[in-house]
Structures are given as structure tokens and as C-alpha cells.
Q: What sequence folds into this?
């Protein structure tokens, strides 16, 4: 679970910096394939629109939760590395 500080930092990073890390052409290719496949499924099965929209929403939520989990892990790792650095620095002072 994210603390208020973690949530604020996550929102800041996500809103201002995440996009610039999607520089790999494969990311954009995959995004396009997903979009086209979603459109195709909706076109081929209009009777399933509500179910498919729900599925796509759940998949988007899962992706958002995965991003948040990765951020939390990075946040914790940063804290541990900082603590280690401070411990090592105090040994040689």
C-alpha cells in the first residue's frame, strides 16, 4: 500500500516523466497491435461490447497496479541503498 508521500511522488513521476521512457519502438508497435485487435474484436462481436469493455478496463487497471507495484519496489530499494550508503560512509569517516 502506498503512503501519501509515495502516492504524491508516483503521481508526479507518472504525469511528468514516464512517457519519455517509452522510447522503444517495440512499445509503440505493441500498443498499436493491442488497439487494432481491440477494435477488431469489438467490430466482429458487437454483442460482446459491454463484456469486452469491462475486460479491457480490468486489464488497464491491472497494468496500473503493476506500475504502482514497480514504483513501490523502486522506492523501497532507493531507501535501502541510501541506508547502506550512509552505513558504509560512516565506517570510513
A:
Amino acid at each position: 500500500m502506498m503512503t501519501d508521500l509515495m502516492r504524491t511522488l508516483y503521481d508526479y513521476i507518472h504525469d511528468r516523466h514516464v512517457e519519455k521512457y517509452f522510447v522503444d519502438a517495440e512499445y509503440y508497435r505493441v500498443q498499436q497491435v493491442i488497439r487494432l485487435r481491440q477494435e477488431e474484436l469489438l467490430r466482429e462481436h458487437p454483442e460482446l461490447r459491454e463484456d469486452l469493455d469491462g475486460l479491457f478496463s480490468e486489464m488497464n487497471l491491472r497494468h496500473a497496479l503493476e506500475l504502482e507495484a514497480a514504483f513501490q519496489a523502486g522506492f523501497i530499494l532507493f531507501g535501502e541503498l541510501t541506508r547502506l550508503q550512509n552505513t558504509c560512509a560512516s565506517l570510513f569517516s
About this structure: Helices lie at 4-16, 25-44, 49-91.
